């Protein structure tokens, strides 16, 4: 059975990826706070069958800014503890709601750490980046050659962290969370009995976190069939944020009123000039939502 290092295993992305991979691979779950493994166990189970390793992003950052050389003491110690693996999935990231709390650490985790990991693991690494490297104001879909145009610190930090020595997937994700509940889907599920706005002019074509886990499985189970390095867009069918909320409502049966808002325009949808997305055969948005856990 292949060994896989999953970085950020208790986050929104990492937890869903764990749910997909837990019975298919021997996992090493890298977490900032080992106590949060209990949350992962409660939702998905099976954590006792896998290794748990703590990582310290702040210590890695201190090595980095203190110019202690590559890869630095903290990262070297972490990689040594992990041991030999066949694949690495980097689901670590400082997300939009937290990006401004410690901006310098945000730039390190989102911008510099992916490059350090790519130097350490090379083509073993699958790294995720975001459609937020684009402003969405141009009014058209973006491909891999489109100029970046981030509008906030989060987008800028992620735009810096797109190494090409590994497989870097640019996409956007939605999904359930173990805690915190800051993403769009968890926000929606807290709106029972309320009237909310759905933006009919905001366009999106990312993937669910669960589908990203399925994509990782495809890439790792048949690595000879897919690219191993470079930057690639991965996406599904285009929907508006209003349409997304309506599909959420149908799936979860939430009693709320969704009012369309037509004036505001934003289009961060992705397209591609490369082959990976076609090879992956990503399901439609509705199909991905139907498969998402309750």
What's the helix and strand layout?
Elements: E1 3-7, H1 12-21, E2 26-31, H2 37-44, E3 51-54, H3 57-65, H4 73-82, E4 87-90, H5 103-121, E5 125-130, H6 153-160, E6 167-171, E7 173-174, H7 184-189, E8 195-199, E9 202-204, E10 207-208, H8 209-221, E11 230-233, E12 239-240, H9 241-252, E13 257-261, E14 266-267, H10 276-280, H11 285-291
Parallel strand pairs: 1-2, 1-4, 2-3, 4-5, 5-6, 6-11, 7-10, 8-13, 9-14
Antiparallel strand pairs: 9-12
Helix pairs in contact: 1-8, 3-5, 5-6
What's the CATH architecture name? 3-Layer(aba) Sandwich
**Low-pLDDT regions:** none
Number of strands: 14
Largest sheet: 7 strands, parallel
Kindly give the count of domains: 1
- Tell me the β content: 15-25%
From the N-terminal CA to the C-terminal CA, the straight-line distance is: 29 Å
Helix amount, in percent? 25-40%
Describe the structure.
This protein has 294 residues and is of the alpha/beta class. The protein has a single domain (3-179, 206-238, 267-291), classed as Rossmann fold. The protein contains eleven helices and 14 strands. The strands form four sheets. It has a seven-stranded parallel sheet with strand order 3-2-1-4-5-6-11, sandwiched between helices. A three-stranded mixed sheet has the order 12-9-14. Strands 7-10 form a two-stranded parallel sheet. The longest helix is centred in the middle third of the chain and has 19 residues, at 103-121. The model has no long low-confidence stretch (mean pLDDT 97).
């Amino acid at each position: 059975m292949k060994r896989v290092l999953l970085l950020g295993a208790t986050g929104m992305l990492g937890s869903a990826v764990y749910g997909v991979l837990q019975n298919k691979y021997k996992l090493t779950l890298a977490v900032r706070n080992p106590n949060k493994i209990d949350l992962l166990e409660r939702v998905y189970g099976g954590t006792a069958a896998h290794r748990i390793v703590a990582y310290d992003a702040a210590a890695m950052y201190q090595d980095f800014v203190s110019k202690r050389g590559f890869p630095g003491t903290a990262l070297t110690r972490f990689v040594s503890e992990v041991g030999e693996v066949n694949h690495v999935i980097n689901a670590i990231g400082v997300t939009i709601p937290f990006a401004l709390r410690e901006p310098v650490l945000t730039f390190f985790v989102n911008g510099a750490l992916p490059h350090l990991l790519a130097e350490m693991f090379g083509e073993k690494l699958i790294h995720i980046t975001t459609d937020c490297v684009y402003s969405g104001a141009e009014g058209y879909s973006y491909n891999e050659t489109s100029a970046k145009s981030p509008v906030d610190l989060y987008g800028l930090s992620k735009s810096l962290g797109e190494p090409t020595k590994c497989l870097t997937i640019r996409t956007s994700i939605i999904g359930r969370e173990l805690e915190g509940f800051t993403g769009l889907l968890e926000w929606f599920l807290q709106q029972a009995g309320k009237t909310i706005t759905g933006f009919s002019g905001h366009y999106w074509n990312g993937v669910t976190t669960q589908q990203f886990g399925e994509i990782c499985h495809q890439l790792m189970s048949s690595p000879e069939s897919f690219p191993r390095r470079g930057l690639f867009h991965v996406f599904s069918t285009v929907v508006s944020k209003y349409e997304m909320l309506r599909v959420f409502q149908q799936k979860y049966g939430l009693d709320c009123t969704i009012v369309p808002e037509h004036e505001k325009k934003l289009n961060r949808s992705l397209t591609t000039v490369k082959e990976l997305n076609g090879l992956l055969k990503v399901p439609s948005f509705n199909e991905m939502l139907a498969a998402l856990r309750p």
